[in-house]
């Protein structure tokens, strides 16, 4: 890096620091506690908690300055961008373990609050005497700190609240707020530092503002304009809106959602004063994010929906291609887009993130898990778990407490391609799933059904980190599975709220569920051939979107699941009526996966084009050219009878018929392959 660039960075950093210093007021008590700890007080851990935007990050920046001025080394950890695991935390916080003069500042700890027990029991006792750690979180520390007398002098807890009136007025003075605007601004923001700063940015520049000034939607828009400054273009505004909508914004995401010059737009975003930069991407402050979201929803609902669609498509592909351990975070990022949908399960229980870790099952875990299953659901259920652990060990995931490594739950995603007598006899739940599938819409060649089973200790049922992780794992399995026909989730004693949530997600409970001992299990079932992943995802949040039937045509409805024989008969009928669009529109093929993948077209037109493409493909192989000639003469060239078609081809009728039948079989086989595997799948029917 050249010296000129270095100087520019220093000047910009100095300007940002000066602005932050000007906006910092009050907090004398908190600063006094920190100073005492810094200069040899007994306290080794300061725990600061308070709601979002209350000034925790600003206070930590002031702590950092005081520590640096005292000659102490300072390290920072941000829970927003850190993987919630002990390994990741320790890698970032390593300086404090080897330096008794180090000060470690942990911001946004609520994102990794699940590590709190591990931090207290395993990490902090390894600190050198003299080192100081500051934790800032939205949530107070758990009661275990107070229950342990060893922490009585080593821990200081500070609750950060609104600024008192005097400090709030000082903050308004620093922003240049006129006297007549103080009362309405205080009524709008109270002593909340971020709201005061944002409100002041608007009020100061509102020449017509008076004591009657009140925030409304126009003020919110003005607030955004004043915070950002003059937006260079519509593309820059769109980039800002994308940053507010997605959990983390990368240049790759910008390229997918806003293809015009993403590099420049990303560079502009990262320089905005309310946008933070991290190793995972860019993110705005929570309050700013919500204001930006509310503004776009109000100002341009259709534009909001279009932006959501583009980001959604990008993150859906991320889920599909994510490597093993990254699946859960990819699903969580996707479902963050639906965070305002009240009908869904809470998409992010960030308070407990990191408390429980997912792990694969190993041979030495079998005995422990069987005992866990016995505790959770009884001996017969434990016997089922043991049966499947030995039969499909790769299907299992374990959920362990981060603090101790102790398993508290485990889960199986059983892939079953065909009924097996031993499995049916061993597990009533699997037997019930097969009975339903065979009675409803049997599996076709190459398909399988999946059964999800879980064993969870009682204290982790309901709203818990285990249930969060299980939710992401189930959704990831469903969205990433190829050739899965049915999914069945077996739930023991589901709550009414959970039943409602499953039904909302088109996973319907079957009457008369299977029993283990005296317990009845509810099976929630979904046919992924009738409502494939793409359609399922599009239905998650209908509140912001236009009517789904208008958005995606046939993709919005349930697809028809045809057997191979039914499919071939429908193809034969379509061949006979290729010129009659009304007949093609009524064909069951118009609601098949084959046609649904071309949802942007009229279904009848798409069906005709697909059949014609399959006929044309016969010309690519010299051995099937004769079949192409027979089928084209019969169905594409308007010949009234097969006898006349044979004459025009100069073939004996029996030879013509043999070629025609073979051509139809090839067309049916080609289109059946596309129905099963997608229209992009290569297929070379057996000659």
Automatic annotation (TrEMBL):
Gene3D superfamilies: P-loop containing nucleotide triphosphate hydrolases. This is Orc1-like AAA ATPase domain-containing protein. Coiled coil: none annotated. Residues 24-74 form the Orc1-like AAA ATPase domain.
């Amino acid at each position: 890096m050249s010296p000129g660039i270095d100087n520019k960075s220093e000047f910009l950093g100095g300007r940002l620091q000066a602005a932050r210093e000007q906006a910092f007021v009050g907090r004398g008590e908190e600063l006094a506690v920190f100073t005492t700890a810094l200069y040899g007080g007994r306290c080794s851990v300061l725990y600061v908690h308070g709601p979002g935007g209350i000034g925790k990050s600003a206070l930590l920046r002031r702590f950092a300055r005081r520590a640096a001025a005292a000659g102490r080394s300072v390290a920072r950890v941000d829970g927003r961008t850190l993987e919630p695991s002990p390994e990741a935390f320790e890698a970032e916080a390593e300086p404090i373990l080897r330096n008794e003069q180090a000060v470690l500042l942990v911001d946004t700890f609520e994102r990794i609050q699940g590590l709190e027990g591990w931090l207290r029991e395993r990490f902090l006792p390894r600190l050198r005497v003299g080192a100081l750690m500051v934790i800032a979180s939205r949530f107070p520390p758990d009661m275990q700190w107070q229950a342990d007398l060893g922490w009585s002098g080593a821990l200081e807890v500070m609750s950060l609240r609104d600024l008192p009136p005097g400090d709030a007025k000082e903050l308004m003075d620093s922003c240049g707020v006129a006297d007549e605007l103080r009362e309405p601004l205080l009524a709008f923001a109270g002593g909340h530092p971020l709201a005061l700063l944002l409100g002041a940015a608007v009020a100061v520049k509102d020449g017509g503002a008076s004591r009657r000034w009140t925030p409304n939607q126009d003020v919110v828009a003005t607030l955004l304009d004043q915070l950002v400054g003059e937006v260079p273009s519509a593309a820059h505004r769109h980039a800002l809106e994308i940053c507010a909508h997605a959990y983390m914004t990368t240049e790759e995401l910008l390229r997918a959602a806003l293809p015009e010059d993403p590099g420049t737009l990303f560079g502009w975003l990262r320089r905005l004063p309310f946008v933070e930069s991290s190793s995972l991407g860019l993110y705005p402050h929570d309050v700013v994010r919500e204001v930006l979201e509310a503004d776009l929803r109000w100002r341009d609902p259709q534009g909001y929906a279009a932006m959501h669609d583009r980001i959604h498509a990008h993150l859906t592909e991320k889920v599909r291609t994510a490597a093993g351990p990254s699946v859960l975070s990819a699903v969580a990022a996707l479902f963050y887009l639906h965070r305002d949908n009240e009908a869904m399960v809470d998409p992010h229980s960030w308070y407990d993130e990191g408390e429980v870790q997912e792990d694969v099952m190993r041979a030495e875990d079998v005995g422990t898990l069987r005992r866990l299953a016995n505790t959770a659901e009884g001996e017969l259920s434990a016997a089922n778990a043991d049966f499947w652990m030995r039969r499909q060990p790769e299907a299992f995931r374990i959920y362990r407490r981060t603090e101790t490594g102790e398993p508290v739950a485990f889960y199986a995603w059983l892939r079953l391609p065909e009924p097996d007598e031993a499995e049916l006899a061993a597990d009533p739940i699997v037997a019930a799933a097969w009975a339903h599938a065979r009675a409803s819409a049997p599996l076709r060649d190459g398909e399988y059904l999946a059964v999800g089973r879980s064993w969870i200790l009682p204290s982790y049922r309901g709203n818990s980190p285990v249930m969060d992780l299980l939710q992401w794992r189930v959704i990831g399995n469903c969205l990433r599975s190829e050739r899965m026909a049915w999914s069945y989730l077996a739930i023991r004693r589901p709550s009414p709220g959970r039943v409602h949530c499953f039904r909302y997600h088109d996973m319907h409970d079957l009457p008369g569920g299977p029993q283990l001992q005296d317990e009845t299990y509810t099976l929630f079932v979904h046919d992924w051939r009738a409502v494939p992943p793409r359609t399922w995802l599009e239905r998650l949040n209908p509140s912001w979107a236009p009517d789904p039937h208008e958005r995606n045509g046939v993709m919005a409805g349930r697809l028809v699941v045809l057997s191979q024989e039914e499919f071939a008969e429908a193809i034969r009928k379509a061949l006979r009526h290729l010129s009659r669009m009304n007949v093609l529109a009524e064909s069951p093929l118009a609601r098949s996966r084959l046609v649904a993948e071309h949802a942007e077209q009229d279904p009848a037109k798409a069906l005709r084009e697909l059949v014609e493409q399959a006929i044309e493909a016969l010309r690519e192989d010299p051995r099937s050219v004769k079949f192409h000639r027979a089928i084209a003469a019969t169905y594409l060239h308007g010949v009234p009878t097969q006898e006349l078609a044979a004459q025009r081809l100069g073939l004996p009728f029996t030879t013509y018929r043999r070629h025609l039948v073979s051509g139809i079989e090839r067309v049916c086989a080609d289109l059946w392959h596309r129905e099963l595997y997608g229209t992009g799948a290569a297929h070379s029917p057996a000659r």
